[in-house]
Amino acid sequence: MTPDLVAEILRQLMKEALILAAPLLMATIVISFVLSLFQTLTSLQEQSLTSVPRLAAIAMILLVGMPWFLGRMASYTIRLLEDLHRYIG
């Protein structure tokens, strides 16, 4: 296995990881911004006000998006295993 091949595998892996993490990260950013704005406008400084909605939103996104997440991971794994002969030999 050449260093170029290893770099290509790692590049594909990082690309898939970014694609899978993007919806969760974007939702967390938006929710955090809205909650911070709400806290600033109402002068509420309750810690549970920020953490509970964020956790609930992440759980909902994971629940709704799980078929897409699993399909994306499965297709990457299948592509990787189909090209295994290229990587070993």
The global form is elongated
Extract low-pLDDT stretches: none
Major sheet details: none
Strand content: under 5%
Alpha carbon gyration radius: 19 Å
Averaging pLDDT over every residue, what do you get?
A: 90
Order of helices and strands: HHH
Structural class: mainly alpha
Distance between the termini: 7 Å
Number of helices: 3
Number of domains: 1
Number of strands: 0
Helical amount among residues, as a percent range? over 70%
Labels describing this entry:
elongated; 89 residues; mainly alpha; single chain
Structure description:
With 89 residues, the protein is mostly helical. The chain has one domain. It has helices at residues 3-42, 48-82, 84-88. The longest helix has 40 residues, at 3-42. The radius of gyration is 19 Å and the shape is elongated.
